[in-house]
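FORM 12-B: Structure-to-Sequence Request
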């Protein structure tokens, strides 16, 4: 935020000067004073951040000036400063939209100072919220999803179509193909929804017994342990989007209840008789083939058709051709810049190795593999030696997905090298450019195994 512009409107020049001097003690404040209501109104176009307005001016009454300000700039806070200690005047002015009322007594300047600080803080917070909103909008636009393969271009087209309406969207694809990313892109690209909440519920992550209350809410005392009333996710998402991830994991009993909610467009909290209207847009995702689940009797057919809406199928990574390299470079660049590592390069051999792999864990796995390679590589060059697919067997794929301390990462990396170089401490110390004694000390402390 630039300077904070304050108007003081007071026909008592001496008082106005004293106020101006006091408020200018903060160099961020740009204070201007005017002796008439007209002068103030004529200068409103310069957009002051706040106005101190004397109630009794020679040309207009304070309330007239206040109304004129509120007509053109309803957001500008106006603090009335007046000699009258008349409570009813204060109430009247507050009703007309004044921000505060300060009586001209010996503490008036101090209160003006405090009022300025409060309002400035509010402005800064609002500024910050606007910036964060912009960031979020930017973060989840299409550019967040990387890849140029034909298969993915079809997906982009569908995301665009899905964003233009409120149609239900069912996103399918193997684990780690970016289903959640697509759900976010649909929500944040929808002009009506992007400023409203996106409420995500992972059906698989919530214990069966708690899921109904999580989705639809409950009243106090509805069941043992329900000590307070609780709003469900559907109600939280009113006006926005609810994203039901892993919908294929929902049990049949709850599927029936969900169907009713979708049909009636209202939820009834457990323990209540009063339904609440919900108009949330619904997105669902699953790594299962729902049609097969229906055939096997594990998913209700009527719910399946209700949820199908616009289906978007995410191709597995192995079918996206050179996107594998595009994504790898993207994750490496991100990782290097987050960790101040300078530019990292990936050799042709390493790229070939990535392209020849099957990627059962899809993009999530690729991210983990190349981030680990970025840590392991020497001289800013990722070679095929740094690309490690057996990671799930020796726990290294977890390395990047878990949040460890730096020491924790060190232990994992050194142990990995020890396993790889047949427990040759001298070789490993050389490779990692650390002292042999460091490794021996860690072995002695039972942090490493040789
Ligand atoms: N095309 C892409 N571009 C950039 N990042 C991607 C892309 N696809 C997936 N990712 C990243 O890969 C990781 C996994 O993606 P996401 O969680 O969206 O997958 P998912 O299909 O929902 O997985 P799951 O089925 O396991 O829930 C995330 O870190 C996501 O940001």
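FORM 12-B RESPONSE
SEQUENCE OUT:
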């Amino acid at each position: 935020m630039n300077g904070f512009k304050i108007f003081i409107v007071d026909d008592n020049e001496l008082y106005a000067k004293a106020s101006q001097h006091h408020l200018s003690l903060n160099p961020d404040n740009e204070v201007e004073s005017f002796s008439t209501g007209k002068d103030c109104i004529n200068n409103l176009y310069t957009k002051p951040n706040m106005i101190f307005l004397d109630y009794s001016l020679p040309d207009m009454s304070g309330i007239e000036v206040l109304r004129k300000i509120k007509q053109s700039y309803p957001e500008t806070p106006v603090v009335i400063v007046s000699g009258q200690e008349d409570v009813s005047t204060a109430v009247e002015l507050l009703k007309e939209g004044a921000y505060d009322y300060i009586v001209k007594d010996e503490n008036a300047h101090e209160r003006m100072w405090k009022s300025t600080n409060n309002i400035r803080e509010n402005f800064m917070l609002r500024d910050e919220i606007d910036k964060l909103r912009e960031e979020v909008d930017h973060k989840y636009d299409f550019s967040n999803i990387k890849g140029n393969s034909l298969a993915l271009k079809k997906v982009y087209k569908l995301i665009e179509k899905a964003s233009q309406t409120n149609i239900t969207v069912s996103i399918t694809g193997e684990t780690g193909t970016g289903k959640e990313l697509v759900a976010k892109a649909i929500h944040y690209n929808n002009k009506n929804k992007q400023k409203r909440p996106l409420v995500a519920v992972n059906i698989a992550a919530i214990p069966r017994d708690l899921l109904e209350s999580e989705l639809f809410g409950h009243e106090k005392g509805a069941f043992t342990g329900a000590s307070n009333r609780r709003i469900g996710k559907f109600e939280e998402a009113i006006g926005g989007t609810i994203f039901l991830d892993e919908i294929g994991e929902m049990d049949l009993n709850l599927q029936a209840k969900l169907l009713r909610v979708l049909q009636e467009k209202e939820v009834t909290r457990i323990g209540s008789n009063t339904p609440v209207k919900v108009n949330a847009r619904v997105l669902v995702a699953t790594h299962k083939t729902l049609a097969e689940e229906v055939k096997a009797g594990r998913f209700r057919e009527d719910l399946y058709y209700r949820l199908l809406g616009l289906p978007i199928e995410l191709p597995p990574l192995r079918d996206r051709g050179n996107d594998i390299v595009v994504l790898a470079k993207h994750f490496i660049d991100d990782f290097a810049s987050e960790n101040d590592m300078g530019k990292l390069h990936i050799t042709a051999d390493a790229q070939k190795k990535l392209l020849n792999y099957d990627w059962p864990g899809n993009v999530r796995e690729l991210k983990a593999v190349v981030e680990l390679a970025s840590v392991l590589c020497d001289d800013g060059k990722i070679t095929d030696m740094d690309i490690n697919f057996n990671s799930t067997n020796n726990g290294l794929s977890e390395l990047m997905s878990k949040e460890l301390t730096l020491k924790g990462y060190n232990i994992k990396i050194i142990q990995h090298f020890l396993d790889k170089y047949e427990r040759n401490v001298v070789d490993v110390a050389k490779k990692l450019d650390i002292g042999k004694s460091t490794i021996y000390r860690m072995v002695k402390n039972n942090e490493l195994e040789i």
